[in-house]
Write a structure and sequence with these properties.
By secondary structure, the protein is mostly beta strands. The protein has a domain of about 30 residues. The chain has 1 helix and 3 strands, in the order αβββ. It starts with about 25 loop residues before the first helix and ends with a strand.
Length: about 60
Amino acid sequence: MCSINLIIRTDLKSDSPFFHPQELSEKTGQVANVVFVEGLTFFKVKWFMYYGMANSHIGVAIAQ
C-alpha cells in the first residue's frame, strides 16, 4: 500500500538523455548499447538507481 504523500511527479521530460551506455558491460550483451532504469531509492543520505545493462546484467549507480 502506498501513502498519497509518497506520490512523485514522473511526467517531466529532459531535452536530452541523462543516462546512456558508457561501460563495456553496458555496450555488449543480448541487446547492445542499451541501459534502462528499473528503480530509484533514497537510503542513508544516498540515491541508488538500479538499471539494466544490455539486457544481460543489472547495475546500480549511487549519488549523494
